[in-house]
Each structure stands twice: as structure tokens, then as C-alpha cells.
Amino acid sequence: MKVTALCPPPSNTPFVGAAGTPPASYMATSNIRPADVASYGYRAMKRGKSVAVYSLHYKFLTSILVHITPRSALRRLLYRLNAQGAPYAALHPVPDHDRDGTAAGTDPM
Q1: In a domain, 32, yes or no
Q2: Tens of pLDDT along 52-62?
Q3: Domain that holds residue 48
Q4: HEC states along the chain?
Q5: Residues of the chain above pLDDT 90, percent
């Protein structure tokens, strides 16, 4: 038995909209077609490849950059990429308080 792990790049699928991904996110603005990625993965599987990374750009990122960049820097970079275009309030939700600083449902006096 042979297994191929397909490592797809970000692509704009119906899931992106259903997940509430911001319109300016790199996933929402991706021009990579899921059908092209799936076709690439199928061809790689038929050739017996164990790992299939779509596009030269992502091959570079996964094979070189990930190995030479400190994990803390990668986490910050990926956080920014995933949060790109998201409003600040969506990334930093305010606790259950009203705007005047009182707990929700309580009288300020």
C-alpha cells in the first residue's frame, strides 16, 4: 500500500466563505483552483509520490523556509496571514462587558 499526502496551498473554496474568512484574507484572494490541486495530487499519487506539494512557491516554503526560520517567527507570520483583513475586534474579542465597562446585564450604579 502506498499513501500520498497532498499539501494544498490556500485556495478559495466555498469553505472560505462559510468559515467567515475576511474578504481580504490570502485564502479568499487566492487564484488557485481546487480542481487543479486535486488533479496534481491524483497525478502525484499515480506516480507513487509520498508527498505532493502544489506549486513551486509552496514547495519552496515547505522545503526550505520552514527549516531555516525559527518556529516563533513562523507562528507570527502564519497568524498574520490567517488574520489578514480581519477586523481587530474579530481577532481580539471583548469580554462580556458593555461599552461603558460594566458587566453585561448589570446596572453601572
Answers
A1: yes
A2: 999 888 888 77
A3: 5-91
A4: CCCCEEECCCCCCHHHHHCCCCCCCCCCCCCCCHHHHHHHHHHHHHCCCCEEECCHHHHHHHHHHHHHCCHHHHHHHHHHHHHCCCCHHHHCCCCCECCCCCECCCCCC
A5: 21
Mean pLDDT in residue range 35-53? 94
Q: Is 108 inside any structural domain?
A: no
Total domains in the fold of the chain: 1
Predicted local confidence at residue 84, as pLDDT:
59
Please state, in angstroms and rounded to a whole number, the distance separating the CA atoms of residues 68 and 87: 31
Residue 85 is predicted with a pLDDT of 56
Of 17, 96, 5, whose CA–CA distance to 48 is shortest? 5
Q: Is residue 101 part of a domain?
A: no
- Mean pLDDT of the chain, nearest integer: 76
